[in-house]
Amino acid sequence: MACCVATGCSNRSNRKDLSFYRFPKDLERRTLWISAVNRGEWEPTEYSRLCSQHFISGEKSNDPQSPDYVPSLFGSDKTQKSSKQRAAKRIERSAMKLKKRDQKDRLTAASVLLGLAMAAAPADVTDQQSTEQSDQDILNDLLPDLQTDVQEEITDPADVQEEDELEEISDEEPETITELPPPEAHLHMNVKDQ
Protein backbone atom coordinates (compact mmCIF):
# COMPACT_ATOMS: atom_id res chain seq x y z
CA MET A 1 0.00 0.00 0.00
CA ALA A 2 1.42 3.37 -1.04
CA CYS A 3 1.49 6.35 1.33
CA CYS A 4 1.97 10.00 0.48
CA VAL A 5 5.41 11.26 1.53
CA ALA A 6 4.36 14.91 1.97
CA THR A 7 4.79 16.20 5.52
CA GLY A 8 1.48 16.18 7.37
CA CYS A 9 -0.34 14.14 4.69
CA SER A 10 -1.66 10.75 5.77
CA ASN A 11 -3.32 9.69 2.53
CA ARG A 12 -2.98 6.06 1.51
CA SER A 13 -3.60 4.26 -1.74
CA ASN A 14 -6.73 2.54 -0.39
CA ARG A 15 -8.71 5.72 -1.18
CA LYS A 16 -10.33 5.40 -4.62
CA ASP A 17 -10.70 9.18 -5.08
CA LEU A 18 -6.91 9.76 -5.02
CA SER A 19 -4.08 9.00 -7.41
CA PHE A 20 -0.49 8.42 -6.32
CA TYR A 21 2.51 9.50 -8.41
CA ARG A 22 6.15 8.41 -8.41
CA PHE A 23 8.85 11.05 -8.35
CA PRO A 24 10.04 11.88 -11.91
CA LYS A 25 13.24 10.30 -13.23
CA ASP A 26 14.21 13.52 -15.04
CA LEU A 27 16.81 15.05 -12.70
CA GLU A 28 15.69 18.69 -13.14
CA ARG A 29 12.00 17.92 -12.57
CA ARG A 30 12.82 15.47 -9.76
CA THR A 31 14.81 18.22 -8.01
CA LEU A 32 11.83 20.59 -8.33
CA TRP A 33 9.51 17.98 -6.76
CA ILE A 34 11.94 17.27 -3.91
CA SER A 35 12.27 21.01 -3.29
CA ALA A 36 8.46 21.40 -3.30
CA VAL A 37 8.05 18.59 -0.74
CA ASN A 38 10.46 20.55 1.52
CA ARG A 39 11.72 17.74 3.74
CA GLY A 40 15.29 18.99 4.13
CA GLU A 41 18.00 16.53 3.07
CA TRP A 42 15.45 13.83 2.29
CA GLU A 43 15.82 11.81 -0.92
CA PRO A 44 12.90 9.83 -2.38
CA THR A 45 13.20 6.11 -2.98
CA GLU A 46 11.65 4.12 -5.79
CA TYR A 47 8.65 3.53 -3.46
CA SER A 48 8.08 7.19 -2.56
CA ARG A 49 4.77 8.61 -3.82
CA LEU A 50 2.87 11.91 -3.77
CA CYS A 51 -0.93 11.93 -3.80
CA SER A 52 -3.09 13.94 -6.20
CA GLN A 53 -4.16 16.36 -3.43
CA HIS A 54 -0.85 18.20 -3.86
CA PHE A 55 -1.67 19.22 -7.44
CA ILE A 56 -3.99 22.13 -8.27
CA SER A 57 -6.07 20.22 -10.84
CA GLY A 58 -5.93 17.02 -8.82
CA GLU A 59 -3.43 15.28 -11.14
CA LYS A 60 0.14 15.80 -12.32
CA SER A 61 0.88 17.37 -15.69
CA ASN A 62 3.82 16.72 -18.02
CA ASP A 63 3.55 20.21 -19.54
CA PRO A 64 6.32 22.46 -18.12
CA GLN A 65 3.97 25.47 -18.51
CA SER A 66 1.24 23.89 -16.34
CA PRO A 67 1.05 24.76 -12.64
CA ASP A 68 0.73 21.01 -12.00
CA TYR A 69 4.13 20.26 -13.55
CA VAL A 70 5.43 20.50 -9.96
CA PRO A 71 3.23 19.72 -6.92
CA SER A 72 2.38 22.96 -5.11
CA LEU A 73 -0.36 22.31 -2.55
CA PHE A 74 1.23 21.46 0.77
CA GLY A 75 -0.40 22.13 4.09
CA SER A 76 2.75 21.38 6.06
CA ASP A 77 3.45 25.08 6.70
CA LYS A 78 -0.08 25.50 7.99
CA THR A 79 0.15 22.27 9.97
CA GLN A 80 3.48 23.21 11.53
CA LYS A 81 2.25 26.70 12.32
CA SER A 82 -0.99 25.51 13.86
CA SER A 83 0.79 22.83 15.88
CA LYS A 84 3.18 25.50 17.20
CA GLN A 85 0.21 27.70 18.04
CA ARG A 86 -1.54 24.83 19.80
CA ALA A 87 1.63 24.07 21.77
CA ALA A 88 1.96 27.73 22.76
CA LYS A 89 -1.67 27.83 23.90
CA ARG A 90 -1.18 24.60 25.87
CA ILE A 91 1.82 26.11 27.63
CA GLU A 92 -0.12 29.31 28.32
CA ARG A 93 -3.10 27.39 29.77
CA SER A 94 -0.75 25.32 31.91
CA ALA A 95 0.93 28.46 33.23
CA MET A 96 -2.47 29.99 34.06
CA LYS A 97 -3.52 26.83 35.93
CA LEU A 98 -0.29 26.89 37.92
CA LYS A 99 -0.77 30.58 38.72
CA LYS A 100 -4.35 30.01 39.90
CA ARG A 101 -3.31 27.00 41.98
CA ASP A 102 -0.49 29.05 43.54
CA GLN A 103 -2.91 31.89 44.41
CA LYS A 104 -5.36 29.42 45.91
CA ASP A 105 -2.60 27.81 47.98
CA ARG A 106 -1.46 31.22 49.22
CA LEU A 107 -5.01 32.18 50.22
CA THR A 108 -5.50 28.88 52.02
CA ALA A 109 -2.21 29.28 53.88
CA ALA A 110 -3.07 32.86 54.88
CA SER A 111 -6.50 31.75 56.08
CA VAL A 112 -5.03 28.94 58.17
CA LEU A 113 -2.41 31.24 59.69
CA LEU A 114 -5.04 33.85 60.51
CA GLY A 115 -7.23 31.21 62.14
CA LEU A 116 -4.33 29.90 64.20
CA ALA A 117 -3.36 33.41 65.28
CA MET A 118 -6.90 34.20 66.37
CA ALA A 119 -7.21 30.92 68.27
CA ALA A 120 -3.85 31.39 70.01
CA ALA A 121 -4.40 35.05 70.99
CA PRO A 122 -5.76 35.49 74.55
CA ALA A 123 -9.14 37.18 74.82
CA ASP A 124 -8.68 40.86 75.55
CA VAL A 125 -10.47 41.80 78.78
CA THR A 126 -11.49 45.20 77.46
CA ASP A 127 -13.04 43.60 74.36
CA GLN A 128 -15.00 41.20 76.55
CA GLN A 129 -16.18 44.04 78.80
CA SER A 130 -17.20 46.18 75.83
CA THR A 131 -19.17 43.24 74.40
CA GLU A 132 -20.97 42.76 77.73
CA GLN A 133 -21.63 46.52 77.92
CA SER A 134 -23.05 46.62 74.39
CA ASP A 135 -25.33 43.68 75.24
CA GLN A 136 -26.54 45.58 78.31
CA ASP A 137 -27.12 48.73 76.21
CA ILE A 138 -29.23 46.76 73.74
CA LEU A 139 -31.26 45.29 76.59
CA ASN A 140 -31.77 48.74 78.13
CA ASP A 141 -32.90 50.12 74.76
CA LEU A 142 -35.43 47.32 74.29
CA LEU A 143 -36.77 47.31 77.87
CA PRO A 144 -39.02 50.42 77.61
CA ASP A 145 -40.57 49.09 74.39
CA LEU A 146 -41.27 45.73 76.02
CA GLN A 147 -42.80 47.38 79.08
CA THR A 148 -45.04 49.54 76.88
CA ASP A 149 -46.19 46.50 74.86
CA VAL A 150 -47.02 44.54 78.02
CA GLN A 151 -48.79 47.50 79.60
CA GLU A 152 -50.88 48.01 76.44
CA GLU A 153 -51.91 44.35 76.53
CA ILE A 154 -52.97 44.65 80.15
CA THR A 155 -54.85 47.93 79.77
CA ASP A 156 -56.50 47.30 76.43
CA PRO A 157 -59.97 48.97 76.68
CA ALA A 158 -61.65 46.03 74.95
CA ASP A 159 -60.31 43.68 77.62
CA VAL A 160 -61.54 45.98 80.42
CA GLN A 161 -65.03 46.18 78.87
CA GLU A 162 -65.23 42.36 78.61
CA GLU A 163 -64.21 42.01 82.25
CA ASP A 164 -66.92 44.49 83.31
CA GLU A 165 -69.53 42.53 81.38
CA LEU A 166 -68.40 39.30 83.01
CA GLU A 167 -68.69 40.84 86.47
CA GLU A 168 -72.24 41.99 85.77
CA ILE A 169 -73.28 38.52 84.62
CA SER A 170 -71.77 36.71 87.55
CA ASP A 171 -72.78 37.49 91.12
CA GLU A 172 -69.78 35.72 92.47
CA GLU A 173 -66.28 36.97 92.01
CA PRO A 174 -64.18 34.32 90.22
CA GLU A 175 -61.56 32.71 92.38
CA THR A 176 -58.97 32.70 89.63
CA ILE A 177 -58.88 36.47 89.39
CA THR A 178 -57.91 36.91 93.04
CA GLU A 179 -55.28 34.21 92.73
CA LEU A 180 -53.48 35.84 89.80
CA PRO A 181 -50.40 37.92 90.55
CA PRO A 182 -50.64 41.65 89.89
CA PRO A 183 -49.64 42.78 86.36
CA GLU A 184 -46.53 44.54 87.62
CA ALA A 185 -45.15 41.28 89.00
CA HIS A 186 -45.58 39.68 85.58
CA LEU A 187 -43.69 42.57 83.98
CA HIS A 188 -40.75 42.23 86.36
CA MET A 189 -40.56 38.47 85.85
CA ASN A 190 -40.26 38.89 82.06
CA VAL A 191 -37.50 41.47 82.36
CA LYS A 192 -35.51 39.33 84.78
CA ASP A 193 -35.91 36.19 82.66
CA GLN A 194 -34.42 37.91 79.65
TrEMBL record:
Gene designation: SI:DKEY-56D12.4
Organism field: Nothobranchius kadleci (African annual killifish)
Biased composition (Acidic residues): 150-176
One Gene Ontology term from the biological process aspect of the record: endothelial cell proliferation
Biological function: DNA-binding transcription regulator that regulates endothelial cell proliferation and G1/S cell-cycle progression. Specifically binds the 5'-[AT]NTNN[GT]GGCA[AGT]-3' core DNA sequence and acts by modulating expression of pRB-E2F cell-cycle target genes.
InterPro entries documented for this protein: THAP1/10, THAP_Znf, THAP_Znf_sf
Main localization of the protein described in the UniProt heading: nucleus
Spans annotated as Disordered: 58-87, 123-194
Metal-binding in keyword set: yes
GO cellular component: nucleoplasm
Keywords, alphabetical: Cell cycle, Coiled coil, DNA-binding, Metal-binding, Nucleus, Transcription, Transcription regulation, Zinc, Zinc-finger
GO molecular function, one term: DNA-binding transcription factor activity
Protein name: THAP domain-containing protein 1
Biased composition range(s): Basic and acidic residues: 185-194
Protein's cellular compartments: Nucleus, Nucleoplasm
Annotated family: Belongs to the THAP1 family.
Listed PANTHER family: THAP DOMAIN-CONTAINING, THAP DOMAIN-CONTAINING PROTEIN 10
Low complexity bias locations: 124-137
All copies of domain THAP-type, residue ranges: 1-74
SUPFAM superfamilies attached to this UniProt entry: Glucocorticoid receptor-like (DNA-binding domain)
